[in-house]
Amino acid sequence: MQARLVNIGYGTIIAVDRIIAVVAPESAPIKRIVQEAKELKNLIDATYGRRTRSVIIMDNSTVVLSAVQPETITNRVNMDIIKEKGRVNEE
């Protein structure tokens, strides 16, 4: 089985199956999660110096920061799922 990947901006690709949540960074609990991940060295900053627009929480406790809106990431994942289902139906 091939791993499904999604582009989270600026050429950064992550495994869809490892994602637990994609959330906006504004709330205090999410800011705490980001700070804790930074302290534990479990933070990946994939913003390339741009403003953080989404926080991706992975199943291995890694937290990924992205400059792409959560809705955009979700749409990309959903489009890949729709395309995959189309390929399965064709076979």
UniProtKB/TrEMBL annotation:
InterPro entries linked: RemA-like
Residues that span the membrane, as ranges: none
Record-stated family: Belongs to the RemA family.
PANTHER family hit by this protein: REGULATORY PROTEIN SSL2874-RELATED (PTHR38449:SF1), REGULATORY PROTEIN TM_1690-RELATED (PTHR38449)
Protein name: Putative regulatory protein HMPREF9454_00581
Source species of the chain: Megamonas funiformis YIT 11815
